[in-house]
Amino acid sequence: MSTIQDIRNIFAEFLYLDDLNMVDVILACAVANQLPGDAVSMYIIGPPSSAKTEILRSLKGYYRTYHPSKITPATLFSGYVEPAGRKGKPHPEKSAVKRMALRGQNIIVFKDFTTILTLRHEHRQEIITTLREVADGYYEFPFGTGEEVAWSGKIGIITGVTPAIDEYNAVNQVLGERFLCFRGKVTTPDEVSKRVFDTTKDIESYRAKTQEAVGQFLVGFEAAGCDLLDMSPEIRTSMISLVGFISKARTGIVRDRSGIVCTPPLAEGPARVARQLQSLASGLSIVRREPMISDETYRIIKKVARDSVHPWRIDLLMFIYSQANQFTTLDLVKHLGIPYMTAKRHLEDLEMCDLIKFTTQILPNGQQSKKWYISPQLSDYIIESGIFINDYIV
Predict the structure, then answer these.
(1) Which of 87, 321, 374, 385 might form a disulfide with 379, Cβ 3.0–4.6 angstroms?
(2) Cα gap 86→67, rounded to integer Å
(3) Intervals of CATH 3.40.50.300 along the chain
(4) What is the pTM of this model?
C-alpha cells in the first residue's frame, strides 16, 4: 500500500515543489469530503506556473471528482436547455449535480478559478452565488413555468487561483467564509526551469502516472472506512482558539465604490470553520496514516488558517503583535513595505473589527499619531493557538 511519501516522490519526478505540503493538503481535502460533516472547499493560491494546476489535474484519477471546464447555474443545477427558436425548460435529470450523484462524485475541481474572476461583474456574481449554494449544500429555484428545481447534498470545491483573489472583495464577502486557503510560493525559479527542461518530452506519461497513483491512493482510504480522528486535549484547546482567530481576522468590511463603509462589520460564526478545520485536520492525518491528529498536522492547519486571511492583514497583525505600542502607521509602512494608503485602509478595517486598538501620541508639531496594539481577545487567541509561532516545516 502506497504512502503519502510515495505520492510526493512521484510528483517530484517532474515537478520542483518548494513546499510538498501542497500535495498533502489537496489530497487531504479530497479525503475530508468523504468524512462525516460539512463539505470542505479550498482555494489553492499561488502565482501562475506554480504547479497547483498539475497537482489538481492528478485528481482526475479519483472517481469522486468532477472537472468542468466552465460552470453556470443552468448546467450545474437545472440542466436548462433552450432549443433554437423555442423557449427552453429545465431538465434537472440532466444537471451536473444529478450526473455527479449517479457517478458517486462529490468534489468539483476547477483548475483555474482566476478565469471566473475576469468575467463581467454580473456573470461573475451569478456563478459565485451558485457556488455559494453548492458550499451550503442545498439549492431551490422556481421557474416561471411553474416548475421548480431543488437539490441538496454535499459537494466540496477545490480550485486553483492566483493571488488576485485577495483583491476581489465582492467574491470574498460571498464565498470567503466558505473556503479555506493554502498559499504556495515559487522561491527557486531556476530549479523549476531545470525540472521542466528535463521532463517536458515525457510530461503526458508523468501526468498519467500521477493520476493513477493518486486515484489508487485515495480509493484505499474509502475501503478502510475512515472517520473523523481524535485529537489531544492540548490540540483541541489550540484549535478552539485558532477557530476564534480566523473567524474574527477575516471579517469582511462592506464598502461602496467611494470607499464608504456601508454596514457595521459582523464576524462570521465559528461553527462552519470549526467543522472544516476538524475535517481537514482529520484528512491530513489520515493521508499520513496517523492514528490521531498530530502536532505536525496542527502546524499545517495553522498555516491554512493564516492563509485564509488576507496576507496584508496577517503581516500587519503579526508585526503589531510582536511590537505592541511601538509603531505608528508610517512605521508599519516602512517596515513591511506596504503602500501607505493600503496600510491605512487595512488598519482602519482591523480597528473596526475590534482586532487592533491604538494609543494616541502628540507629536512636536502638535499633530496626533496613533500607535497600534492587538485587542485583548485577539491576543488571547494568538497566544493559545500559537498561530504566529514560526514552526511550519515544508
Answers:
(1) 374
(2) 30
(3) 4-227
(4) 0.90
Which triple of cell numbers denotes residue 181? 486557503
User: Counting beta carbons within 10 angstroms of the beta carbon of residue 40, is it exposed (0 to 12), middle (13 to 18) or buried (19 or more)?
Assistant: buried
Report domain 312-385's class: mainly alpha
Cell (9 digits) for 279? 475535517
Q: What's residue 176's pLDDT? A: 57
Topology, domain 4-227: Rossmann fold (3.40.50)
Q: How far is CA 36 from CA 56, 104, 156, in A?
A: 23, 16, 13
CB 88 within 8 A of CB 80: yes
Amino acid at 147: E
Q: Specify burial of residue 258 (Cβ count, 10 A radius: 0-12, 13-18, 19+).
A: exposed
Residues in the chain: 394
Rounded to whole angstroms, what are the CA distances from 318 to 66, 182, 238, 324, 337? 38, 18, 18, 10, 14
Please say whether the beta carbons of 353 and 328 come within 8 A: no
Question: How high is the pLDDT of residue 144?
Answer: 62
Contacts of 390 (CB under 8 A, 6+ apart): none
Supply the pLDDT for residue 86: 47
**What is the greatest pairwise CA distance in the chain?**
76
All cell numbers assigned to 91: 431538465
- β-pair type (156-161, 107-110): parallel
* pLDDT at position 88: 53
Could you write out the three-class secondary structure of the chain?
CCCHHHHHHHHHCCCCCCCCHHHHHHHHHHHHCCCCCCCCEEEEECCCCCCHHHHHHHHHHCCCEECCCCCCHHHHHHCCECCCCCCCECCHHHCHHHHHHHHCCCEEEECCCHHHHCCCHHHHHHHHHHHHHHHHCEEEEECCCCCEEEEECCCEEEEEECHHHHHCHHHHHHHHHHEEEEECCCCCHHHHHHHHHHHHHHHHHHHHHHHHHHHHHHHHHHHCCCCCCCECHHHHHHHHHHHHHHHHHCCCCCECCCCCECCCCCCCCCHHHHHHHHHHHHHHHHHCCCCCECHHHHHHHHHHHHHCCCHHHHHHHHHHHHCCCCCCHHHHHHHHCCCHHHHHHHHHHHHHCCCEEEEEEECCCCCEEEEEEECHHHHHHHHHHCCCCCCCCC
